[in-house]
Amino acid sequence: MAKINVLSVCGSGTVTSSMLSAKIKEHLGKHGFNVNATEVNPGGIETALGSGSFDFIAYTCPIKDVYGVPIVSAMGFLTGFGEEEFIEEVLTILNSKG
Q: Mean pLDDT across the stretch 64-82?
């Protein structure tokens, strides 16, 4: 299984981002990825990026788009109305990494 690192961002950095991480792990696991997820709030993004390398950022609240890491809106994925689109976008990102 290919290992990937995901930064999961929600407004508080706890409940929603944990739910998002679990769902990402489940869905990407079906595609052969071993997902390591870190949950933060928007204020913790820069600290997390400074202490680790991430393949993409999944977010459910507004964030800046200046981190040098692909960002993907996960609100539709979390609610179930956009799961396929989210997974397709993430797989495109991961497959472009080589």
A: 89
